[in-house]
Amino acid sequence: MSSQLFSPFSLGALSLRNRIVVSPMCQYSAVEGNAMPWHRVHLGQLAQSGAGLLFIEATAVEAIGRITPGCLGLYSADNVAALRAVLDDVRSFSDMPIGIQLGHAGRKASSARPWDGGQLLPASQGGWPTVAPSAVPHGAQEAAPQALDARGLERIRNAFVQAARHAASLGLQAVELHCAHGYLLHQFLSPLSNQRDDGYGGSLAQRMRYPLEVFDAARAALPASIPLGVRVSATDWVEGGWDLEQTLAFAQALKARGCDWIDVSSGGLSPKQQIPIGPGYQVPLAQAVREATGLPTMAVGLITEAQQAEAIVAEGRADLVALARALLWNPHWPWHAAAALGAQVKVPPQYWRSEPRDARGVFANAAIGQR
């Protein structure tokens, strides 16, 4: 049996052993944007998963762009030093390619951690003023964000550039821009949150303008050897909002600028969203982007079973499958998928002896000797 899920793939100049991607997963466990021991354990565990590529969680390009006070950042020298220490330890035990997702939460910043309720934090509880394309709050009962002026747009664009340079200096091998889930760049795209009357609002072309400027600036800041992709919410799931047709136009514009992949998610912009959740519910969106643009696509969302993931790739619905919750539930998901699909994964020698008798050969190059 020849598994397509476990076949090699390339994103730009980056070669992957297989099509399984560890999706960016917020941990809400940083201090002032700095990676902590939790990140060492979390990323270290996922770096032994057998996936083809590991993404570090959504990482803020400036302090007020953090989703919560516990979110990771890459905007200060301390942030860079803390993440470098974590990466040095992880890389000493794994050669899995590691990328990072860079973002800015915009009006969805200054939130409490999910286990603390996840709502907008007032200043009295450690919150801060937020910014957005327009002074339109995320929730009707929330304070309105400050609409960004020209100086603010320039500051944030430069912050993305600086964060991209930091990523390159850390030896990270891929960068993804977060244009999804209702965060700042998505806020510019959607007519529900972007009500500007200048050159950055109104028509589709003008709503796409700022995210495309950020992409161009980040691409120029990164060496050609580091691929750059974009995560999108393909639809707001709200009538009159951002939708698949607009996403396809955005993806075509990104392709023309040298985008290396589109990571296709959905929703997150409005509390009014009506999402038809079910197994693989976002895969048709990824397939539509792939067919319309020819760009490599990642499918994500309630993909939990090996045969399900295999079919997505084998049937050409997406080029890669990105897993998040499934890998938190079972950090060795790719091991078990390889066993089910007759494939192999690279596993650290410390774990070779765990290979079950009925799955012999799943661990590539495993050999154990003993007196």
TrEMBL record:
SUPFAM superfamilies membership: FMN-linked oxidoreductases
Domain NADH:flavin oxidoreductase/NADH oxidase N-terminal: 4-339
Keywords: Flavoprotein, FMN, NADP, Oxidoreductase
InterPro entries: Aldolase_TIM, OxRdtase_FMN_N, YqjM-like
The organism's taxonomic lineage, starting at the top: Bacteria, Pseudomonadati, Pseudomonadota, Betaproteobacteria, Burkholderiales
Gene3D superfamilies recorded: Aldolase class I
Pfam families given in the database record: Oxidored_FMN
Entry protein name: NADH:flavin oxidoreductase/NADH oxidase
Required cofactor names: FMN
Molecular-function annotations in GO: FMN binding; NADP binding; NADPH dehydrogenase activity
